[in-house]
UniProtKB/TrEMBL annotation, chain A:
This is Xanthine dehydrogenase family protein molybdopterin-binding subunit. The keyword Oxidoreductase applies. PANTHER family: ALDEHYDE OXIDASE 1-RELATED, XANTHINE DEHYDROGENASE. The keyword Cell cycle does not apply. The lineage of its organism: Bacteria, Bacillati, Actinomycetota, Actinomycetes, Kitasatosporales. Signal peptide: none annotated. It comes from the Bacteria. GO terms for molecular function: iron ion binding; oxidoreductase activity.
From TrEMBL, chain B:
GO terms for molecular function: FAD binding; oxidoreductase activity. Keywords: Oxidoreductase. Pfam families: CO_deh_flav_C (PF03450), FAD_binding_5 (PF00941). This is Xanthine dehydrogenase family protein subunit M. It comes from the Bacteria. The lineage of its organism: Bacteria, Bacillati, Actinomycetota, Actinomycetes, Kitasatosporales. The keyword Oxidoreductase applies. PROSITE patterns: FAD_PCMH (PS51387). Residues 1-221 form the FAD-binding PCMH-type domain. The keyword Plastid does not apply.
Length: 748, 324
């Protein structure tokens, strides 16, 4: 008799383990932590966007009831060192910008933190913060692209020095020259803010020279490393907890200055300090998606085959960092096009350094590219889907390598079927009363970034047969804790109910921040390898143990099933982990796993792909656009949990709709202040906006990306969504909108 | 938050007295906007007198009119059978406003008095003639996509945010008040002031004067009425443009019409010019469009909100067409 392979737990749509604590209010977030003697810090932001502080008077604030301290550039200690800008994916210190406020009197952007008020209650601190009187010498800010367009430059590198400002393959000029059809267009994008539900917060406590931070972050280790460098204290003396995080969308991907200020304030008053940003401060404390415009020139022959693609981006960055979200790289890999040129141009302005935000880069780059392709399809009178199929990239056009796995054709097929693409007739939308109905589609792409250093996890099994996996990752709503328990369960052959995942603490094995859709792949691989190492360790013990029924067996012939180690060919012969451990008076056993970085050049190119199909209804007389249906199909490699994966992809699609139709932070160009820093005025979709959404998972086997074959679902749901909606609006109305968000006045 | 004194009144006279004698005081009803503004330091009262216990929550028919207590919640008014059948435009306007949770808290009196959504009014670092008379207006040349095109002045272009008040304006409602001296009443048109040179004065109430009820006259033509709201998202959002309309036809001619506009003016905007043109006219698209054009003829848009002029006209046409 042979043991039947157990049904894998990986992939099953298990409900989220954090669902109940979050919905019943028992989950504790960073600003919920209650410590003896806790005090409260509130930040004061600069009223002006550019200039100097000429006087700062804290007397009234210090006199207010309950106030313990007011810190300004005049009395805050200088930081020891400023780490360079580096995305937190790299695993080291990762400040959101290389400017640390409150070090001198200079103001670079409105809302820049200029004082910290500490009081015994939050309300008292908030009140006293209003009593800090500041005088400025103001200069005219550069707050929007139009004010600095003539000073644009091409940076040598962007993105923390990781990517070139200019890249090219093939001869773009020649490609455009020989093209029989050319599309040239400019696409503009309003700035956006991430707006997670939980505002960023840090609770800081010092104990005998050691610093403990409860921080809302996508990477506890990133906070640890960044604060350590800036304070000049050993990494080993800082421990960061981040057990629950109420969403991030990039706002918490980097370490901004508030954890540092919380730590300094706590040291100053000698008591624990909780620093929670207000909603308004979320607009001036954690970066944003920058104002940008993309110029696309693409050439094609009469059959629609691309000959060249030129994609230039102009965007606003801060005075201290060359930052642009990476809009040009992954879109350059979607289609077989012999020539490509990508150029970033930057304008320095009086804003924070922009940062990651939901589908950072691809969200804007794919709007431009997929809109331009739709324009090409219209010009050539080719079906937009057919146009994309004609340009299908059989190999990676950037490296020339084969794909590790692909799946885009299948995504097109499934999505088209869902939306009923074959009923679409170009230029002939259906009508229903005042509404015209349009269908649009777009491809989706997201890059796969391999780890740049070892991603570690620990797996432990107890003598009662329960198991836990641990890594320092944060659970900020992705479903990681649920999926990791599934990975652990499969590797050990345990029921998933006996498996638990624990993260959110820098004392646990180190992993990089969960950013760029890498969480499932990186943490999952580390947990998998740890659990496999633990299983092999225990099987090794069993086959070497004279008292074990498995004594003398070939370890390779022993498999884990239902909490037991048993012979594959004779499942009756074996024993449970519990029996083995108990017999040896061993309360538990554990092992580590370490994933990556890849050795040498990978044999294949890695990428995640998908397709969007949407149906919109446009009431052109009143300028109203309603998205009625969205069908997304995605090929994310292997799926760890079908429910949480679909949840992430669906919300990505809805965020794409939000980017398409609603989200904009308006800059007052004269003052350099954001004009709508509230959730009442910065619009995101409500239920009434939400259409019928279907998500299809096209699973592909991938033996290159990582041991689990997982690619990630965090961001690709949003990649291309806005273009699919714009393309549907064009189908409905004949009107091509080349700006985001697309609002009433664009369709009127 | 700024320290303040809080008390609860249980009788109307006590509440009115408490606020009247203290110039630093303010009433607190549903608090759905007021609390936000307190936290943002936009409003700075030293004392809040909570009036939620006052017996002003009734919705009653009296001699043909409907009298709505000032503390009736928006959701209760929207659900009242008398409102739904006799004044559909008001029920629709209420349900198009805010969110269900806010409608359960917000009161009718508070709704009339809600403050503007102008970002410069809410940002205490910005100049604002409403918040700090004489400091200037940030919106005039700033971000003003949502701002008014009618009834503006060189000192203020903030849009009146209420939906319900637009419907009440179309219905010729009256606002009843109490002062320490006695009772007062205002036709709704007189209740809302244009900004002019005094944008900080939004209504004629004296300090301490309390709204006690809103009276809607019997308006049989309102049974054929609608409230059309155009906004950036499908719900929980202020109007870019809204239209409250009633229409009565006799032999194809318009024998009764009421029109009021929201989202485009500094006060709920009764479209009397359009009404005059429509009375006696044929109920067709051309007449509707011409009346709408005439109503918006004096619009003073900015580059960002210029679209509202066209949108408002189209919305008027759409609303009237739906009733014809």
């Amino acid at each position: 008799m042979t043991a039947t392979a157990p049904t894998p737990v990986i992939g099953r749509p298990l409900p989220r383990v954090d669902g109940r604590p979050k919905t019943t209010g028992t989950a504790r977030y960073s600003a919920d932590v209650s410590l003896p003697g806790l005090t409260h810090a509130v930040l004061v932001g600069a009223a002006i966007a550019r200039g100097r502080i000429t006087a700062i008077d804290a007397a009234d604030a210090l006199d207010a009831p309950g106030v313990l301290a007011v810190l300004t550039h005049e009395n805050l200690p200088r930081v020891t060192a400023q780490p360079p800008l580096l995305p937190s994916l790299a695993g080291g210190p990762s400040p959101g910008q290389t400017f640390c406020p409150m070090q001198d009197d200079r103001i670079h952007y409105a809302g820049q933190h200029i004082a910290v008020v500490v009081a015994d209650t939050y309300e008292r601190a908030l009140y006293a913060a209003r009593l800090v009187h500041v005088r400025y010498r103001e200069e005219d800010p550069v707050a929007v692209l139009d004010q600095g367009r003539d000073q644009a430059y091409v940076p040598e590198k962007i993105f923390g020095g990781l990517l070139p400002g200019r890249s090219a393959r093939g001869d773009v000029e020649a490609g455009l020259e020989r093209a029989e059809v050319r599309v040239e267009a400019t696409y503009t994008f309003a700035p956006n803010h991430q707006n997670p539900l939980e505002t960023s917060s840090t609770t800081a406590m010092w104990e005998g020279g050691r610093l403990f931070l409860h921080d809302a972050t996508q990477g506890p280790a990133a906070t640890q490393h960044t604060v350590s460098v800036m304070l000049g204290i050993p990494h080993a003396d800082i421990r960061v907890y981040s057990h629950y995080v109420g969403g991030s969308f990039g706002a918490k991907a980097s370490t901004w200055d508030h954890p540092l200020l919380a730590a300094l304030a706590a040291r100053h008053v000698g008591r624990p300090v909780r620093l929670a940003l207000t909603r308004e401060q979320m607009f001036t404390s954690c970066g944003h998606r920058e104002e940008q415009e993309h110029r696309i020139a693409l050439g094609a022959d009469r059959d629609g085959r691309l000959t060249a693609l030129r994609h230039h981006k102009l965007s606003l960055t801060s005075h201290f960092d060359d930052w642009a979200e990476t809009s040009l790289e992954a879109p350059a890999q979607v289609y077989a096009c012999p020539a490509h040129e990508g150029v970033y141009r930057l304008v320095r302005g009086n804003t924070m350094t922009p940062t990651f935000m939901r589908c950072p880069g691809e969200g804007s780059g794919m709007f431009a590219l997929e809109s331009a392709l739709d324009e090409l399809a219209t010009r050539l009178d080719i079906d937009p889907l057919e146009l994309r199929l004609r340009n299908h990239a059989d190999r990676d056009p950037a490296s020339g390598k084969p794909w590790s796995s692909h799946g885009l054709r299948e995504c097109y097929e499934r999505g088209a079927e869902r939306i009923g693409w074959d009923r679409r007739v170009a230029g002939r939308p259906e009508r229903e009363g005042p509404w015209t109905i349009g269908l649009g589609m777009a491809s989706a792409v997201y890059p796969i970034v391999p780890p740049s250093n070892p991603q570690r996890a620990r797996a432990r099994i107890y003598a009662d047969g329960s198991a836990v996996a641990q890594a320092a990752t944060a659970e900020f709503g992705t479903g990681a804790a649920t999926a990791m328990a599934q990975v652990l369960a499969d590797a050990l052959g345990l029921p998933v109910e006996r498996c638990r995942f624990e993260g959110g603490d820098t004392d646990l094995p180190n992993v990089a921040s969960t950013v760029g859709s890498t969480g499932a792949a990186m943490v999952g691989s580390a947990v998998h390898l740890a659990a496999v190492a633990l299983r092999d360790q225990l099987i090794g013990r069993a086959v070497a143990d004279e008292r074990s029924p498995l004594h003398g067996a070939d370890p390779g012939a022993v498999v884990p099933v239902d909490g037991r180690m048993a012979l594959r060919d004779d499942p009756g012969t074996g024993e449970s982990y519990a029996e083995l451990l108990t017999r040896h008076f061993q309360p538990d056993a554990e092992a580590y796993g370490s994933f990556g970085p890849p050795q040498g050049e990978p044999p294949a190119a890695m990428i995640t792909l998908g397709a969007h199909f949407v149906e919109v209804a446009v009431d052109g007389e009143l300028g109203r656009v309603r998205v009625r249906r969205m069908a997304g199909a995605f090929a994310p490699g292997r799926v760890l949990n079908a429910r949480t994966a679909k949840g992430q992809l669906m919300s990505g699609m809805l965020w794409g709709m939000s980017q398409a139709l609603l989200e904009a932070t308006h800059m007052d160009a004269a003052t350099g202040r954001w004009a709508n820093p509230s959730l009442g005025d910065y619009l995101i979709p409500v239920h009434a906006d939400t259409p019928e959404v279907t998500v299809d998972l096209i699973e592909t086997a991938d033996h290159v990306v990582n041991p689990l074959g997982v690619k990630g679902v965090g961001e690709i749901g949003q990649s291309g969504t806005a273009a699919a909606i714009a393309n549907a609006i064009h189908h409905a109305t004949g009107r091509r909108i080349r700006k985001l968000p697309m609002t009433v006045e664009d369709t009127l | 938050m700024r320290p303040l004194t809080y008390s609860r009144a249980s009788a109307v006279a006590d509440a009115v007295h408490a606020v009247t004698v203290d110039p630093e005081s303010a009433y607190l009803a549903g608090g759905t906007t007021e609390i936000d503004l307190l936290r943002q330091d936009v409003l700075t009262p030293g004392r809040l007198v909570d009036i939620n216990d006052l017996p002003l929550t009734g919705i009653e028919e009296t001699r043909g009119a409907l009298v709505i207590g000032a503390l009736a919640r928006m959701s209760d008014v929207a659900a009242a059978p008398a409102v739904r059948t006799r004044y559909p435009l008001l029920a629709q306007a209420l349900e198009a406003g805010a969110s269900a949770q806010l409608r359960h808290m917000a009161t009718m009196g508070g709704n009339l008095l809600q403050r503007v959504r102008c970002g410069y009014f809410r940002d205490t670092e910005s100049p604002c003639n409403k918040r700090r008379p004489g400091s200037g207006c940030g919106a005039l040349t700033g971000v003003n996509r949502g701002h008014a095109v009618l009834g503006t002045s060189e000192h203020c272009i903030a849009t009146h945010p209420s939906d319900a008040a637009v419907a009440l304006t179309a219905l010729d409602a009256r606002v009843h008040t109490r002062t320490t001296a006695g009772h007062g009443a205002y036709h709704i048109d007189d209740f809302f002031l244009l900004p002019g040179d005094t944008p900080h004065r939004e209504h004629p109430l004296e300090h301490g004067e309390l709204i006690t009820s809103i009276e809607i006259p019997d308006t049989p033509t309102a049974r054929n009425s609608t409230y059309l709201k155009v906004r950036d998202r499908a719900s929980y959002e202020f109007a870019l443009v809204s239209v409250a309309a009633t229409l009565q036809l006799e032999q194809g001619r318009i024998s009764g019409v009421r029109l009021a506009l929201g989202g485009v003016a500094t006060k709920p905007w009764r479209a009397r010019r359009a009404e005059r043109l429509l009375l006696g006219a044929g109920a067709d698209r051309r007449a509707f469009a011409e009346a709408a054009r005439e109503e918006l003829a004096d619009a003073a848009p900015t580059p960002m909100n210029a679209f509202k002029v066209e949108l408002a006209q189209r919305a008027v046409v759409r609303a009237l067409e739906s009733l014809a």
